[in-house]
Amino acid sequence: MKSEIKEISPTQKEIHLQIDADAIKASYGKISQKYASRASVPGFRKGYAPLDVVRLRFKEEIKSEVLQDVIPDAVSNAIQEHKLHPLTEPHLHLEDHETVKVNGSQPLSLHVHVQVMPELPKPKYDGIEVTRR
Question: In this prediction, what percent of the chain has a pLDDT beyond 90?
């Protein structure tokens, strides 16, 4: 996983993420197997349908579940890596969300907007004279 941070404003950061194809492929295989073991496909006994048929029939459901499996971990790891303390939930933006492939043939790119507290400068209190009343 590659991640780089960009400062949009003092209170907003943007993280560009690229999730490796291997992580996506592993999640895709695990979720496809889960669907294949439970799927009821006409012409096959329950749980015995070929994996390719299950992947074709439940394409959108598998895609959605793979994204829900891979993205949150990657986002939380990137936030911890850059030592950010978000104030609100991060806003995710997938690049080419219509044509994203979750079979592990290509990496997944996205960017995340995170609201953070601004850096407050430390006041200079050295040399200030204080009188006690």
Answer: 59
* Torsion (CA) 92, 6, 122, 86 in degrees, nearest 10: 10
pLDDT single digits (tens) 35-77: 999 888 888 888 888 989 999 999 999 999 999 999 999 999 9
Separation of alpha carbons 47 and 33, rounded Å: 10
The set of residues, in sequence order, having a beta carbon less than 8 Å from that of 117 and lying 6+ positions away, is 11, 85, 87
Whether residue 133 is contained in a domain is answered as no
Task: Specify the CATH number for the domain of residue 48.
Answer: 3.30.70.1050
Around Cβ 54, how many Cβ atoms within 10 Å? 22
Q: How many CB atoms lie within 10 A of CB 108?
A: 24
Whether 123 is covered by a domain: the verdict is no
Q: How far apart are CA 53 and CA 36, in angstroms?
A: 9
Quickly state the pLDDT bin for 96 (edges 50, 70, 90).
Answer: confident
* Alpha carbons 108 and 102: distance in angstroms, whole number: 8
CA nearest to 77, candidates 90, 61, 96: 90
